[in-house]
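Subject: Predicted fold for ABC transporter permease subunit, 241 residues

User T.R. writes:
Posting the sequence so we have a shared reference for the thread.
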Amino acid sequence: MKKKIIYFFIGIILFIAIWSFVSLKINSEIIFPSIDKIFLDLINIISQKDFYSNLLYTFMRVIVTFALSFLLAITLGIIAGIFKSIRYILMPIINFIRTIPTIPLILIAVLWFNNNLVPIFVSLFVIFPIIYDAVVNGIINIDKNLIEMSNSYNVSFKNQLISLYIPSIKPYILTSISQSMGMTWKSVLASEIITLPTLGLGTKLYESHLYLNTVSLFAYCLIAIIFNIIFEIIMRLQNDL
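User M.O. replies:
I've generated the structure tokens; pasting them so everyone works from the same file.
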């Protein structure tokens, strides 16, 4: 464990050293700013009140997207997992959703929804299939003998759902949550950058790019990376419980 921590910090130091070397060689703040200027700008950003408004709206979109994806995927996934006919009916629809390119979907969604809602709609299409597949696969892999035994003892569907299906698919769900939470964050940010909602970190990223404020652009990227790491750590800790 200690060696892993040491190697981790060596990696960070090496990354900073390489970045600093490249920054000195290029010697252009617009193209490749130094790390110290990025961190100073980051401190300046988080000291401003509007930063927390933008962060809150992005965070709310992530939570709403994930909650909607989770509820929809769990509901349809359980039904499709139990009833094979429903699974085959939904298969072409799920495959279609899974293969839609994100950028064209954003451009279409802009025509249908308010810019503040587009990131939620687009991210829903990205995340839903991941959780849905996990639920369906979890139910398919349940021991058939347990299902037959439950049916032979006339166990109600409600009790089967609570005592058999949900506990059996829990590991699959936790894994899919761990995979999809980070993707939700990235998808919402990408959608915000293109659709430019009134408030959101993606909008601030685009504004930094538009005005060639590369230092601020990297600072916002660093903020996005930090929160993505936080989400992934929380999900991993949840899986370990």
